[in-house]
Amino acid sequence: MLPPHLGLFLTWCAVLLVLASGSSTNLPIISFDEGYTQLFGDNNLALHGDGKAVHLSLDERTGSGFASQDLYLHGFFSASIKLPSDYTAGVVVAFYMSNGDMFEKNHDEIDFEFLGNIRGKDWRIQTNIYGDGSTGIGREERYGLWFDPADDFHQYGILWTDSQIIFYVDNVPIREVKRTEAMGGQFPSKPMSLYATIWDGSNWATNGGKYRVNYKYAPYVAKFSDLVLHGCAVDPIEHQSSCDDVPTHKAIPQGISPRQRTKMEYFRKKHMTYSYCYDRARYKVPPPECVINPREAEHLRAFDPVTFGDGRHHRPKHHRQSRTSRADASL
Q: Are 305 and 311 in contact (CB under 8 A)?
């Protein structure tokens, strides 16, 4: 029989191996010119590695970004990303889908946002969704990570179908949003483009704007590689999709396997720091699509008993604009 301390050590090692598993090498990777176009930033966007890697920079002049050439209705979209290091407070790197340029008043959005921090503090990752312009109902979740995203490349992916949205980090699902009757039209359902941007979010990104971008550390460079656009391309005028032309690929996720669900449950219990479903200061009754997990609720109450428990006072929350409108403002 193993000594208790050794058993705990081996269990922890096994968990780390489980979380670290997953690779983008078998995915259908494309070059930048095959699927993307520059959105803004002039020379702050640079291609590397025969056009299969992209560096986005933020300096005092401007941020930068790129967008998919096509609109998509459902699919799997991912990139390997290495974030800027050192002091990154106020810096926002976003990898997301949106149709805000086409549907200004009722746009859809699926977000990965990476929020920088002061030196010695970790990057934070935020996910969010909007459907039919539902920006007034924030569906944010925030997490820490089990690695430093500035040390190396890690894969971030979005699986979007007509019934669910799944966010992945290194092939580990970290969030699942199921389409429910209670959501009505607020589940993203119109064709969207894929975007990647880096920009100055000093007004809100780090401690509600307490710490701002310090340009003496610029340029801030976010590196993207292993670009995957595997979905149903849509005609921008007719809005008809060409799903029949999309070949199946065994490396593309189709959902969440039992093993992956175990990983997701562990991740959320260990690393989630905010979920709108448990925010009792914001919602006296959870929104109808929320499915309350007692373990997640217990973890969040321990992390922040005021927001997620019965505290009477809470810090004012920043109700942010949709990320699309902020990126547009930086053009």
A: yes
